Amino acid sequence: MAKPKVFVIYYSTYMHVRKLAESVKEGLEKTSKVDVEMFQFPETLSDEILGMMHAPSKPKDVPEITVDKLPEADGYMFGFPTRFGNAPAQVKALFDATGGLWMSGALYGKPAGLFFSTGSQHGGQETTAMTFLPNLVHHGMIYVPIGFKNPNLADNSEVIGGSAWGAGTVAGSDGGRIPTEKELNIAEMQGEEFACFVAKLAPKGAAADAAQDAAVPVAAGAAPADDAAVPTAEDQKDSGAQPEPAPGSKKEKKHRVRDKCIIV
Question: SUPFAM superfamilies, alphabetically (predicted)?
């Protein structure tokens, strides 16, 4: 049986978020419940500008995500630095291009988690998640926070990035601080917890469902199963089948539920 697929999609200028993404990926894979692929948000800045920012070259082993690729996953872990308490332009540019996916409902009901990098402890570890939520809400996606399950989130002995909203790191005003072991531990735990959630929500995976649908084509002009001919009592007698119970009898099945969600 195919496993659900999770995309870890990140944007990282100075590789702080990249390190968190690697720990998230390790946590996802540790469970053996999901298949994982890693992508980068497409860069919108020119090489000239990136050079002036002294930004290192982007890893060549991680491809850039495309809008058409997004629906192939069953869940998403998005990671990015904050920009004035919001997601940076690179992240916004991708989501601004998902109008077609919104129209078709391609991302509806799929879970997503978030992780971040900020310049200071109070630089947007929580507000960045809050301001990003409308992107998920308008697509009908399920936001999966981590709460305070990891004890490092309650450790006041040192500066530790992350919050109940998601894992995080504090890069420092000059970007010189690298993610600590405790921050990476939170990110890894977030990956583990998210994998378990996705496995419960989509046990087979979207790719498996698509393959199954493709394997059972419906002949053109064929009548739906519900409209198929109902065998007569004589037919049932000849075949040895038991006749349907009379309406109102105790054995009558009063409800038939198929591909419906019932809210009680």
Answer: Flavoproteins
Amino acid at 235: D
pLDDT single digits (tens) 175-217: 899 999 999 999 999 999 999 999 999 877 765 565 455 444 4
Tokens of 122: 């109070």
Which range of residues forms the domain containing residue 170?
A: 5-208
In a domain, 29, yes or no: yes
Q: Assign 260 to helix, strand or coil.
A: coil
DSSP letter (8 states) at residue 152: G
Residue 16 lies inside a defined structural domain of this protein: yes
- Give the C-alpha separation, 35 to 65, whole Å: 16
CATH label of the domain that carries residue 37? 3.40.50.360
* Ramachandran area for residue 15 (φ above 0: left; ψ -120 to 50: alpha; else beta): left
| Confidence class for position 173, pLDDT limits 50, 70, 90 | confident
Separation CA 36–CA 250 (nearest Å):
49
Q: Which of 224, 146, 156 is nearest to 188 (CA)?
A: 146
Place of tokens 């040192």: 158
Backbone φ and ψ for 185, nearest 5 degrees, come out as: -65, -40
Find out whether 70 and 106 touch, Cβ atoms under 8 Å. Answer: yes
Rounded to 5 degrees, φ, ψ at 241 are -80, 150
Q: Render 2-47 in DSSP notation, one character per residue.
A: PPPEEEEEE--SSSHHHHHHHHHHHHHHHTTSSEEEEEEPPP-S-H
DSSP 177-235: PPPPHHHHHHHHHHHHHHHHHHHHH-SS-HHHHHHHHHHSPPPTTPPPGGGSPPPPHHH
pTM of the model: 0.79
What φ, ψ does residue 14 adopt, rounded to 5°? -115, 20
Place of tokens 């990098």: 117
